Amino acid sequence: MAELDVDALIARYRERAEAVQERGLPPVAGDERQMFLKQAELDFLDFSLIGNAKWAVEDGHLVLRIPLSSDGG
């Protein structure tokens, strides 16, 4: 099994969040367009939450601390 590099994992999530923001809109219309936009919003939220996490190992568990406000508190 590969060694876990948590900093690299978090960096990949940051990169994915940026990629979602830069991703172009495919040629879809109507309901498909709305579904695509909704999924992009969810993808960005998920990726950016993990991408902004601080981490620690506590009692043998990887703990991600995710700030839920812009001031980090």
Binned, the helix content reads 40-55%
Alpha-beta content class: alpha+beta
Rg, nearest Å: 16 Å
Q: Which strand order do you get reading across the main beta sheet?
A: 1-2
In the residues, how many domains can be counted?
1
* Record field, number of beta strands: 2
Strand residue content: 5-15%
The main pleated sheet reads as:
2 strands, antiparallel
pLDDT averaged over residues? 91
Distance between the termini: 36 Å
Overall geometry comes to elongated
Helix run count: 2
Strand-helix topology:
Blueprint: H1 6-22, H2 30-51, E1 54-58, E2 61-65
Antiparallel strand pairs: 1-2
Helix pairs in contact: 1-2
Quick recap:
With 73 residues, the chain is of the alpha+beta class. The protein has helices at residues 6-22, 30-51; strands spanning 54-58, 61-65.
Overview of the structural elements:
The protein is α+β, with helices and mostly antiparallel strands and about 70 residues long. It is built from 2 helices and 2 strands. The protein has helices at about 5-20, 30-50; strands at about 55-60, 60-65. The protein has a two-stranded antiparallel sheet with strand order 1-2. Strand 1 (about 55-60) and strand 2 (about 60-65) form a beta hairpin. Helix 1 (about 5-20) runs antiparallel to helix 2 (about 30-50). The protein is elongated and about 50 Å long. The model has no long low-confidence stretch (mean pLDDT about 90).
